[in-house]
């Protein structure tokens, strides 16, 4: 594939997409902050992910998180697939934000794509771990930021590997087709980032399913059960609230306990029915996530150009000096 072939999407379609994205973000933000009792971190997570994924994010929100009727959120988000959606959204909100911010900076620095993708990886992982995971979730882990980092490190790392397994080849291959898409001032840059985020969500979902199922990561939340201070007094004995609170607390405690040195209970609580995951099983999943990342990198190197950089002269790009090649 030669660089600068026809762009994948006409520019007018991208403007339509981003108009729909703006409307989707406005709806999700309004609905989240006025009627759906999600945890605060997830409210912002949904807004950010919808900003990156447009109408697709709105559809996912509608069918997996939006409270269909007052007082039903706990039951509505209880299925494992919806819990996994929540886990993936939480991961993606932090990771994609760091990745896109890094992509803007590396574009200004004119770094080659082969370096750019690993700067994005580091930025996405650190922002996701230190901000969206540990900082926003520390109150659920006893208020200790350091323990929150320990508890979040493994699930955030394997999730990040899976996210980038999808995002790296999408970004590199499509930007190889059209170098103007490497410039943040171009609408094509944002179109590719949007598509890459969607692909990253797909590749991250299976690992997040395993993490939630094995209680190594929380799923979709609700502030009535997990908000600071617990559920309102008038609903404290509601079976849906108490069951959801116990299950969610168990997930977070197991995650913290699994990260504590020597397997000690870092939170000071008992397991509450959580599963013990062997070190070998966790290592196998980590290896699988690295394999996915390696496949993504291979696809990017095979079908894209890792040497390209923003502002590179066209005659310096591979394939531009081939006989018979015309712009």
Task: Describe the fold and architecture.
With 327 residues, this protein is mainly alpha-helical. Helix content is 66%, strand content 0%. The chain is built from eleven helices and no strands. Residues 81-217 form the DUF4396 domain. It holds the Pfam family DUF4396. InterPro entries: DUF4396 (IPR025509).
Helix content: 55-70%
Number of helices: 11
The class by helix and strand makeup works out as mainly alpha
Unreliable segments of 5+ consecutive residues: 227-247, 249-256, 258-274, 319-327
What proportion strand?
Answer: under 5%
Number of domains: 1
Radius of gyration: 21 Å
Average pLDDT figure: 82
**Number of E-type strands:** 0
Shape: globular
Helix and strand succession? Answer: HHHHHHHHHHH
Distance between the termini: 14 Å
Most strands sheet: none
Organism: Hymenobacter metallilatus
Protein name: DUF4396 domain-containing protein
InterPro entries: DUF4396
Keywords: Membrane, Transmembrane, Transmembrane helix
Summed up:
With 327 residues, the protein is mostly helical.
List strands and helices in order, with pairings.
Blueprint: H1 11-34, H2 40-53, H3 55-64, H4 73-76, H5 80-109, H6 113-137, H7 145-177, H8 187-213, H9 223-226, H10 239-259, H11 279-303
Helix pairs in contact: 1-2, 1-3, 2-3, 2-5, 2-8, 5-6, 5-7, 5-8, 6-7, 7-8, 7-10, 7-11
